[in-house]
Amino acid sequence: MANQPAAPTHQPVQLRGDYSHAAADYTVDQDWERYTPAEHEIWRTLYARQIRMIERYAAPEFIEGTRRLNAAPDRIPDLEATNRILEPASGWRMVAVPGLIPEDQFFAHLAHRRFPVTVWIRKPQELDYLVEPDIFHDFFGHVPLLTNPSFAKFMEAYGLAGPKAIAAGGLKMLSRLYWYMVEFGLIRTPQGLRAYGSGILSSKGETAYCIESPKPNRLAFDLERVLRTDYLIDDYQQTYFVIDSFEQLFRAAYDTDFEPLYRQFAATRGIEPGVVLPTDRPVRDQNDESGLPQKRLKKD
Ligand SMILES: [Fe+2]
Questions:
Q1: Is 142 a catalytic residue?
Q2: Annotated catalytic residue: which of 132, 202, 203, 206?
Q3: Residue 150 known to be catalytic
Q4: What are the tens digits of pLDDT across the range 107-135?
Q5: In the annotation, is 183 catalytic?
Q6: Diameter of the chain measured on Cα atoms
């Protein structure tokens, strides 16, 4: 039995999962038979509206991954059944967990190409906002891109980087990389900017906002800049970072020695989420005809 972890968020929240039957690595049986018709109905609602959004706003690699996983639109996925598709395709498998798990366990799973997926689904009144990730966020938002070889390598490298960050006092900096590039990342495509972050693509509102709204900053990805930038957990992002390719993201993380960066910046104040620095490179969607530079040196 595992102890209930402290949530790795900046808010003291009472975790809602049942940790009483979790193994030492925080895995549980999904116990798929226990989902009620009402819970499958919540999945159906979320899936139907989000599958339409991703066709318009998601990276092609994400859409392709969603197709390959072939999840049923009308019922919560059986993780073991989907693992029979995911594992041969990517070397990754999903493991069921009760909810958020401690960072060291999370890193260990990723380093072994296991992606933790929360077993419970949100309530009907939480369709648009949820404090903790549920199975819709974890499965629909995260798992499709694990079928992309470069992104899969990045996620494994992230897991391997975890213990080193903990040892070097760099956990907060490393978690910003996950936040901005796994949860809220954008990518350039020949068709214009597209979203691939799971926090975006499991949220109806932010999926359109991150691409369409003139309000947020969209800055070219720079590893050091991301590691130094604070983030918001309870509102749409004020800044999104844009990669050119998943291989760029993997190479930046894999080829960089993070320890000197932790030494230099871990004790310094983070850059505020809405700020644009003179050294930043704003990215304009090629479909944006305004011709105006994005706002600089200014907070929302
Ligand atoms: Fe997530």
A1: yes
A2: 202
A3: no
A4: 999 999 999 999 999 999 999 888 899 99
A5: yes
A6: 58
Distance 183 CA to ligand 1 centre (A): 6
CATH architecture of the domain formed by 32-296: Orthogonal Bundle (1.10)
The predicted-structure confidence for 66-79, as pLDDT tens digits, reads as follows 999 999 999 999 99
Q: Structure tokens of 242? A: 């844009």
Q: Kindly name the residue from 109, 142, 198, 206 that is annotated as catalytic.
A: 142
Asked whether the predicted pLDDT for residue 293 surpasses 80, the reply is no
Q: Which value, to the nearest 10 degrees, does the dihedral of the CA atoms of residues 134, 88, 52, 38 take?
A: -40
Q: Mean per-residue pLDDT for 252-270? A: 96
Catalytic residue among 103, 137, 198, 206: 137
Write a three-state SS string for 99-157. Answer: CCCCHHHHHHHHHCCEEEEECCCCCHHHCCCCCCCCHHHHHHHHCHHHHCHHHHHHHHH
Phi-psi region of 31 (alpha: psi -120 to 50; beta: other; left: phi over 0): left
- Cα 155 to chain center, whole Å? 10
**For residue 299, what pLDDT is reported?**
38
